[in-house]
Amino acid sequence: MVNRRSFLKTSGALAVASMLPGLSRGNSIFKSYAANYPAIGLQTYTLGFLLNNKEIDTKVALKQIADIGILELETATAYTGGLYYGHKPKEFAAMVNDLGMKWIGNHVFGVMPKNNQFGKLTNFRDNLQQVIDEAAEGGCPWVICSMSAESTMDEIKETTEVFAKAGEAAKKSGMKFAYHNHESEFDKIDGVSAYNYILDNTSKDEVFMEVDLAWATQAGMDPVEMFKEYPARFPLWHVKDIDPSTNRPISVGKGKVDFKRIFENSQLSGVQHTFIEQDGAKTIDDVAESVKWLNKNIYS
């Protein structure tokens, strides 16, 4: 196993930590979170290269995440067959809770596409009860679909039916269901986008959206206008930025997403949880930079 000190050195987190205004739960980085906004969370897909590394103890990795100011986690473990970074849900939740964080939910697939190139994945269509049961064991209030087949009208309709069932099942179990977007959901098929079709054909009390602010922006959408059109349907956010020169994710505040305007209008969305996500992050420093920017420019 890699010990905490060597992990900090190899990740570069010590250097970034020195730039932050304190890392204990009693210090200012945590006190400065504005009451108007949810605590800063992390989608762990961002740091999969750490959490999936069998040479790094899971709790050591989670400790580094807590130390840079993350208070809530959303995981992404559809490949792992009931394990969450090598641990059963109850065990993983205990580690998260011991570090002062909360485990909010986990990403799994919705409807697998017919030309499936992802392999065998946990998904809402085939494994709904398993997803619900594991979330319950971990104490998660949310179950979330990371992506789903939506390239044809038939796929959009099937996805919508599966989401309706997932939302109903989640509600019966005291949880909530949400769908995370990429760009393609906003493409129109037969005059309608998958995104609008899902919102218009599901219960506003059972099917919610986890809006990825970067991918929505990249698709030409205005998140604030989305909030106005479908108020209170966006309780989960992925706080992600896009580099305008590469059209790829970058640390929050370095790209083209207008976070200040979006956060100023956050009450329209019904936001409850926000998760930093950066596809392609190389070290924990990338996340620490995003936390620092949010703390200075949004939460201060």
TrEMBL record:
Signal sequence, renumbered to the chain: none
Protein name: Secreted protein
Species for this entry: Albibacterium bauzanense
Xylose isomerase-like TIM barrel domain: residues covered: 83-294
InterPro entries: IolE/XylAMocC-like (IPR050312), TAT_signal (IPR006311), TAT_signal_bac_arc (IPR019546), Xyl_isomerase-like_sf (IPR036237), Xyl_isomerase-like_TIM-brl (IPR013022)
Recorded superkingdom: Bacteria
